[in-house]
Amino acid sequence: MSVTLTLALFLAIGIPLAATLPRKMITPLPVNVLIPMYFKPELGSWDRLHDAAIRYPETTFTVVINPENGPGSTVWPTAEYIDAIESLSKYENIRILGYIDTDGGKRDNATIRQEIAVYVGWHNISKSLTLSGIYFDRTPYKNQGHA
């Protein structure tokens, strides 16, 4: 009888303990969601991203902005983009990348460098316009001997 009682106690304590211990020892990987925001930040159009940043604070949202197939032809972003970027910059879990199209490596390096400089210069307007990086689209998939 004591063997049966000991076995029952062992199972009653051991099974739940075995089921919960591994979960506590496993560290989940961080989640990072890449979001191409290739549309203008018109009234309310980026609200879902704000809602997601608040609702999922443990998730990092990497947002690629594309004002005019790159930073655009002017040195400063439009007022709508300034407001939108400053608003997104308030969230610790949002990273903002600027978009540059490389056209498969066919675009002139000087032009691409100038677009990089435009994005970098945005922080001169406001520190909250500082981007986390740049997303280079359509990069060459073969080594063609030039960068």
From TrEMBL:
PANTHER family cross-referenced by the UniProt entry: FIBRONECTIN TYPE-III DOMAIN-CONTAINING PROTEIN-RELATED, PTHR35040
Domain of life: Eukaryota
Pfam families: Spherulin4 (PF12138)
The UniProt record lists the keyword Signal: yes
Transmembrane domains' residue ranges: none
Protein name per UniProt: Spherulin 4 cell surface protein
Entry keyword Phosphoprotein: no
Coiled coil: none
Alphabetical keyword list: Signal
Cleavable signal peptide: 1-20
